[in-house]
Amino acid sequence: MPPRLRSLPPRLWRLPLRTKLALGTSFAVIGLCGWLVLRDSALFAVNDVAIVGLSADAMPAVSEQLVAAARSQTTTDFSAGDVRAAVASYSLISGIRASTHFPHGVTLYVGEELPVARIEVGGTGIAVAADGRVITGFSPRAHLATVHSGRLPLGGRTRDRFVLTALRVLNAAPAPLFSRIAAVTRANGALTIYLHHGPRLIFGDGALAHAKWDAAAAVLAARSSRGASYIDLVLPWRPSAQVGDPGTSLSAATAVGAPAAAATALSASVLQVSG
Fold this sequence. Notes:
The protein is α/β, with parallel strands linked by helices and 275 residues long.
């Protein structure tokens, strides 16, 4: 007879097998019920919530609702899905993972879909992603390039062809220049980008966007292009910067390779291009 069985009280040995099984099942059920009660009790309530990955430009309500949804749970029965459901109205949030820290802590790892521009329709600003989807939950005070549109988004997405082209061009911008973009317009039929403290960038259309951004960066980096009022990038392999006198322009070769004296003579400091 196994040692464990020998230690049982003699009376239990005399009980029928069916009774022994019933008692064992009862103890297991009682233990499980006790755990189910305890795991949702205040003993394991979430008190400390850390959020990782949420943009500083998210609306305060987003983080507040994340924290509230986490604190309504326990670390022993935590559901990231419930937190995700609590902020489902904010398309800024693309996903949520959670890591609990017994007994009262949880870390939320937030995935985001950030906007690339704000379209303005009749004075109303609407943040949108690169594919035209409306992004909710992003602060209206955050800096975003502005694209004017005559059509409100339908079904959570803009259908304006010019806006969609502008968004693709913006999404291709290198980070240092993206942060300086103020607006995108259609000037005289050409897609034109306005930079903060910099010249207009005439793209013409959305074709060869990466090549045009590369050309713009190269011209802006050249000392001889300082003071340019605009840079024509319609032909990205031969961009030109208008500096000073409207009758004077610098080709890419001149802008990149002109001697300092020639650049000084051509530059009239219409607009100062900061590096």
